[in-house]
Amino acid sequence: MTYVRLSIARPRHGQEERLHEIQAELARWARDQPGCRESYLLHPHDDSGEIARITIYESEDAAEEVAKHPHLMSLRSELNLAAEPDHVERGFHAEAEYGT
Hints:
Layout: E1 3-9, H1 16-31, E2 36-42, E3 51-57, H2 60-67, H3 70-82, E4 88-93
Antiparallel strand pairs: 1-3, 1-4, 2-3
Helix pairs in contact: 1-3
């Protein structure tokens, strides 16, 4: 079953560029990992300053394998330093067809 990870973060004051770099690197790196179908960096149409990342995996197991990689864990630690503490990290199962 398709599994989607979503990260939405606002930068701490003065960390705007660094947060963008980290989110972009996470998206690029994940895209090349086994089980990853797509990975995107997202910018809002408003002035919230949020930077989001969405990554689509073949399965939750594939997502978990990627999440355990030391490079990803290191980047996530950096993200925690650059982002406001209320950032969102969520995972979702995607239905194969709507309404099922």
